Amino acid sequence: MAAAATSCGPRAGASGCVVAAAGKDSVTSFQRRGPKASGPDGGCRRLASIAGTRPSVRNGQLLVSTGLPALDQLLGGGLAVGTLLLIEEDKYNIYSPLLFKYFLAEGIINGHTLLVASAKEDPAEILQELPAPLLNDNCKKEVDEDVCSHKTPESNIKMKIAWRYQLLPKMEVGPISSSIFGHYYDASKRIPQELIEASKWHGFFLPEKISSTLSVESCSLTHGYRRLLHFIQNIICEEGFDGSNPQKKEKNVLRIGIQNLGSPLWGDDICCTENCNNSQSLTKFLYVLRGLLRTSLSVCIITVPTHLIQNKAVIARVTNLSDTVVGLESFIGSERETNPLYQEYHGLIHIRQIPRLNNLIGDVSDVKDLAFKLRRKLFTIEVWRKDVYSFPNLKFL
To answer: Which Gene3D superfamilies match (predicted)?
Structure first.
């Protein structure tokens, strides 16, 4: 190594200096260059220091939990920071608010900053309805009782299923420790009031933000969308989530939740007619919002009544502007509600799109035929084995 260093004299070429630099850092062309995790300023250590986060095993992207460990598993480990999750609301808007509340409750448990926006409910009232976390060791017994109470006589019959069904992925259904990524929640109980008081959150209630005298501006965004974008941008900049104003304390993650986006309550008419005047308003809002997310330590979940949007082209554009898309299909009011094939479930869940980072298009999940059920305490996701239910008299060896 010393010989290589002395070759960088006046007569030595540029290649000699390169060899000297390589020998000094002990890095060859066959070794990967990257941040040292053991160093005091290692990037991996800084990311891992944020509570309620973990790096992705696939690409190292920082992940947060959705509040539903089974959904985290389906999305590749969780939600990537800087991305947008779109929840397609079910027809009667019964189950989509649960996923919305699980996301917010997970933020409170991990000490993340919340930003709750709604045009229908007061954000303070939404926080009061968040489910209670299952953190104690005794909650395992409660979950077992909840599962046993919903078992039917047919489900107690053990069948020997073909080996290919045994290889299907199993969704997690039990509680875990508070120190592990992701938590389970009891839908029958409310989150303790002291946790809400100790949390930091910002609320955006559209009826309170609309003034009586509105100035007409030449902008394609509705007044509600403009006010919400300014509100989100101010929170990100003022509290240092974009890195421009370093936070005095430890780094934190901003969880943004927007409810019923695209509905007439936000001043949007895409749900009223197919040829609406503001058909580009929602898509432009999502375009700007995703730009804010990409440049900050924030993650966002939105619920959209896609079943009310009459223009299919708008739905396609909204999907393309979202990183992750999850659709909920409820059996209430449909023929499947009385169909014996679906008697154990309350609806189907569709993973329509999962993020493919550093690409222009998203990816499609390999797991299909997913169903959900709401027990007395837990919201669970399971693989619906339709081939087994289609042939109830068929016996597998």
So the answer is: P-loop containing nucleotide triphosphate hydrolases
**What pTM was estimated for this model as a whole?**
0.77
Over the range 325-346, which residues count as b (16 or more CB within 10 Å of their CB) and which as e?
A: bbbbbbbeeeebeeeeebebbb
Helix axes 281-294, 312-320, angle to 10 degrees: 10
Would strands 324-330 and 84-88 be described as parallel, antiparallel, or unpaired? parallel
Please report the pLDDT score of residue 311 as a whole number: 87
Q: How high is the pLDDT of residue 160?
A: 36
Contact 48, 28 (CB under 8 A): no
- Please report the pLDDT score of residue 310 as a whole number: 84
Q: What is the pLDDT of residues 48-93, one digit of tens each?
A: 478 899 998 888 889 999 999 999 999 989 999 999 999 999 999 9
Cβ-count burial of 266 within 10 angstroms (0-12 exposed, 13-18 middle, 19+ buried)? buried
- Specify the pLDDT at position 363: 62
The length of the chain in residues reads 397
Residues sharing a CB contact under 8 Å with residue 114, sequence separation 6 or more, in sequence order: 104, 107, 108, 127, 199, 200, 201, 202, 254, 255, 257
Look at residue 389 in the predicted model and tell me its pLDDT: 45
Tokens, residue 174: 């039990």
Q: Is 159 exposed, middle or buried (0-12, 13-18, 19+ CB in 10 A)?
A: exposed
Instruction: Tell me the HSE value of 392 on the side-chain side, using a 13 A CA sphere.
Output: 6
Instruction: Please compute Rg for the chain using Cα positions.
Output: 25
Joined tokens for residue 99: 């996923």
CA distance 234 to 222: 19
Contact 371, 349 (CB under 8 A): yes
Q: Which residues of the chain have pLDDT under 70?
A: 1-48, 135-179, 211-219, 245-250, 274, 276-278, 357-366, 385-397
